[in-house]
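Dear H.,

Thanks for agreeing to be a second pair of eyes. The structure we're designing against is below in token form, covering all 407 positions.
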């Protein structure tokens, strides 16, 4: 029998963290035990997690994953971050304990999870601190993949069983979300060097031979990248946080010791802010055929938030928008340290010298949108030249669809 949801809400991209925190702390009063079931409209990019279950014990997060908490899902997490639990002899010991502590209730087998963990502690195979750290890393990894970029529906499902199954008191949700937000910034900063954890690192043998690395460090590095392991594989081998692995290899890439097979797959991201949905869609259709990633913002009031949650190589701003103009946004953007050097291009249907001068004064480029059909080709050529100058692609030889100015 399905457990009825006691609260639900829809969310757009970037909204889930704030809505989760509000619903947990204010509507559920931070005391409920159960699961937030988050179902995404599309599978989150680079993730196999859909749906995402977030387990709460009296309002504190104790687990996350693509299924409810169980001994199987817990053991997978512990083996991921505690290497000794992968050893064949330890696996056999664990299996023996599982059989000993499994009971049958209403034709359903249940493992006494807390008793099993206690036995593993007695054998010095795992500690409480290791369990807590493993679960925290698992939750943050899931949040990295799912929490920010997708829309969907969330509902809370009560589950009193977590009271007798949870191995930890849990983590404060607001603190976890703040940590996850900081990690998003770090991931964005790493993206140009580490576009995906599925990339395969390749050693630059001559550079390594000339480097100041010790013999042990060189051997260690060689063993890590053996047999075409991806960065995710290496993180699993070392039982480390994938973000730390990405940071470590970004440093090696910066020192010229490693390249990534697949790093050429990094695609510059364009952000365009315009209050016309027609212009946004036509612009997106055009530049995506050239090979760019595109993020759109129709609401100038929330545009800065969209930009900050992106990793833009270039930003296009319509000048003439209601309430907040493109020039207002330039000021907001330039106050953000991470955006200070991102090229800005001002878009307008006007061709006045005043607007052109003001754009140049703001350290921006200026591009006139086509007003009539005859200006489309000119616009496409000028846009392509700007992109090749400010955000070049490795390869860009696609067919260009028509872009017609709507306003």
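And this is the sequence the design step returned. I haven't edited it by hand at all.
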């Amino acid at each position: 029998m399905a457990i009825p949801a006691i609260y639900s809400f829809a969310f757009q991209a970037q909204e889930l963290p704030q809505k989760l925190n509000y619903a947990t702390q204010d509507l559920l009063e931070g005391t409920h035990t159960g699961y937030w079931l988050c179902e995404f409209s599309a599978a989150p990019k680079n993730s196999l997690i859909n749906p995402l279950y977030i387990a709460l014990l009296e309002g504190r997060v104790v687990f996350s994953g693509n299924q409810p908490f169980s001994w199987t899902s817990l053991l997978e997490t512990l083996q991921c971050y505690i290497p000794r639990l992968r050893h064949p002899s330890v696996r056999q010991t664990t299996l023996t304990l599982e059989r000993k502590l499994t009971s049958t209730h209403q034709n359903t087998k249940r493992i006494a999870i807390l008793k099993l963990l206690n036995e593993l502690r007695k054998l010095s195979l795992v500690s409480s601190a290791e369990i807590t750290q493993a679960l925290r890393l698992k939750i943050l990894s899931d949040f990295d993949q799912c929490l920010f970029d997708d829309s969907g529906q969330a509902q809370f499902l009560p589950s009193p069983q977590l009271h007798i199954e949870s191995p930890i008191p849990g983590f404060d949700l607001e603190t976890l979300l703040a940590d996850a937000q900081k990690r998003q910034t770090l991931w964005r900063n790493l993206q140009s060097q580490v576009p995906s954890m599925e990339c395969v690192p390749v050693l630059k043998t001559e550079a390594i031979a000339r480097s100041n690395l010790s013999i042990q460090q060189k051997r260690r590095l060689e063993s890590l990248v053996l047999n075409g392991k991806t960065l995710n594989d290496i993180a699993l081998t070392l039982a480390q946080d994938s973000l730390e692995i990405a940071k470590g290899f970004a440093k090696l890439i910066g020192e010229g010791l490693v390249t990534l097979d697949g790093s050429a797959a990094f695609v510059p991201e364009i952000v365009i802010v315009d209050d016309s949905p027609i212009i946004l869609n036509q612009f997106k259709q055009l530049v995506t055929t050239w090979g760019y990633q595109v993020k759109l913002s129709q609401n100038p009031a929330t545009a800065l938030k969209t930009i900050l949650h992106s990793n833009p190589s270039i930003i296009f701003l319509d000048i003439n928008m209601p309430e907040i103009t493109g020039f207002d946004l330039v000021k907001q953007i330039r106050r953000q340290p991470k955006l200070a050097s991102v090229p800005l291009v001002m878009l307008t249907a006007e061709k006045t010298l005043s607007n052109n001068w003001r754009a140049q004064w703001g350290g921006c480029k200026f591009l006139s949108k086509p007003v009539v059909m005859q200006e489309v080709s000119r616009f496409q050529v000028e846009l392509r030249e700007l992109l090749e100058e400010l955000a070049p692609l490795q390869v860009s030889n696609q067919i260009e669809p028509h872009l017609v100015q709507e306003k």
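Two observations from my side: The CA atoms of residues 118 and 124 lie 10 Å apart. The radius of gyration is 25 Å.

Warmly,
E.
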